[in-house]
Amino acid sequence: MDDQAIPLDAETKAVEMPEDHREELRLWLRLLTCSTLIEGEVRRRLRERFDVTLPRFDLMAQLDKAHDGMTLSDLSKRMMVSNGNLTGLVDRLVASGHVVRTVSPTDRRAMVISMTEEGRTEFRTMAGEHEHWIADLFGDLNAKDRTDLMRLLAKTKLSARRAIKGDDQ
Amino acid sequence: MDDQAIPLDAETKAVEMPEDHREELRLWLRLLTCSTLIEGEVRRRLRERFDVTLPRFDLMAQLDKAHDGMTLSDLSKRMMVSNGNLTGLVDRLVASGHVVRTVSPTDRRAMVISMTEEGRTEFRTMAGEHEHWIADLFGDLNAKDRTDLMRLLAKTKLSARRAIKGDDQ
DNA sequence: GCTTATTGTTTTAAGCTTAAAATAATTTCC
DNA sequence: GGAAATTATTTTAAGCTTAAAACAATAAGC
């Protein structure tokens, strides 16, 4: 009866009442929606305009930054995908002539993946347009919005990493 | 030679120089990283803890909100995935006893998907833990951070929708 | 009522993704 | 130098995802 009348301090409340985390849930759903929405559109345009998939574009984006190629493991870490996934992805990019596989001169287990000349040229064209798409998709955010969002996402990333790191050791 | 010495006003600059959109690009990559990081962890925990996949969890989350079931098309719109995708997803959830298919009484083309009693019970357990995971993952954000991020993501979502709507009509 | 267009779903083919197991080469440690 | 552990990659099996085509039922326009 008196539940609502008795004021509780934050500590007591945290211990005695089941906490309400709906706000965080809504935040997560909104973050996911934004991400899904933009990613889907980028996928659609990459296919429509260049007949390329997002994973292939992402892989080439990594290779474009590294001048002397990268090993599968490096790519795997950077792209946050499994090694097995990359095997097939690289197969298809080799078949289409965008990248080549070479055995590492220093480690015979490792494969070094590098872009071909044509792959690089084609990627740069795609990347140029891609940058404009992103600018357009984020076009209604002003300079302050962008700075604030950047900072908050950085904080979110750290928070998530902290939660992930801590959960099994 | 004098390029750097001549000051240009914003308008002139915008027209004559290739614009630099690296900031928006970094913003997008950071948004995507956050989303991927959290989503990956949620997937991992759902599998580990309940042996369920994220798409199945998401589908059940939609059904849990709608008391009298939903048609495939409704689910497709809400979940932002293709119809064909849902066919297989529902197949598997029917096989595991979480949901049932019934033909719509008003439209013989439409299938109404609804949760079974056991499916609902199991989902609520999962949803309860899931909410805590999210609260933990976002745990380092204070109340103001959350409000600000919520607002900025809403703005981003609108901006993206505007850009998507406008691009082919 | 009949034709046409629309809507709802499934099928198909291709590609993406993962975890787990298998394979191969290197490094570490006696 | 040889056994054991680690590291790099591939294979496998299962599931997710999409676009496009096929199919089925309903709605709209005459």
Can you give a write-up of this model?
- Two copies of one chain form a homodimer.
- Chain A has 169 residues and is mainly α.
- Helices cover 67% and strands 7% of the residues of chain A.
- Chain A contains seven helices and three strands.
- Chain A has a domain at 53-120: Winged helix-like DNA-binding domain superfamily/Winged helix DNA-binding domain (Arc Repressor Mutant, subunit A, Orthogonal Bundle).
- The longest helix of chain A has 29 residues, at 22-50.
- In chain A, strands 1-3-2 form a three-stranded antiparallel sheet.
- Chains A and B meet through helix 2, helix 6 and helix 7 of A and helix 2, helix 6 and helix 7 of B.
- The structure holds a DNA duplex (30 and 30 nucleotides).
Essential attributes:
globular; three-stranded antiparallel sheet; 7 helices; mainly alpha; DNA-binding; Arc Repressor Mutant, subunit A; 169 residues; homodimer
Query: Can you identify the CATH superfamily of the domain at 53-120 in chain A?
Result: Winged helix-like DNA-binding domain superfamily/Winged helix DNA-binding domain
Give unreliable regions of chain A as ranges. none
Q: Quaternary state, please?
A: homodimer
- Arithmetic mean pLDDT of chain A: 89
Gap between N and C termini of chain A: 44 Å
Please state the CA-atom Rg of chain A, rounded to the nearest Å: 23 Å
Share of helix among residues of chain A?
Answer: 55-70%
**What is the makeup of the main sheet of chain A?**
3 strands, antiparallel
